[in-house]
Design a protein that fits this description.
This protein is an alpha+beta fold and 86 residues long. It has helices at residues 21-27, 32-38, 67-76; strands at residues 2-11, 39-47, 54-63, 78-80. A 4-stranded antiparallel beta sheet has the order 2-3-1-4.
Length: 86
Amino acid sequence: MIYKLGTITSHFGHAPPETEPWVILKTLGIDVALAKRAVHKLYFEQYPNYNVLEIKHDVFFIPNDTKHGSMFAIKYGTKVNDKSAI
């Protein structure tokens, strides 16, 4: 199952979100300690945006098959049915 956490905004010239994924989660207001135990894989998909100076990314994750993964998905995620988003 794939879940969406939210959308982040970065600026042209800054490092991509993949370089510091846990910091990105903290800016979204997510419990990073729980995320480190619960998330199997994080994905950052660039969002179509026509503003050259801002770059938006949708943040997706695949939870672990544990109680932490289930709890994290229920608390923070929105289920994405379309797997082509990743």
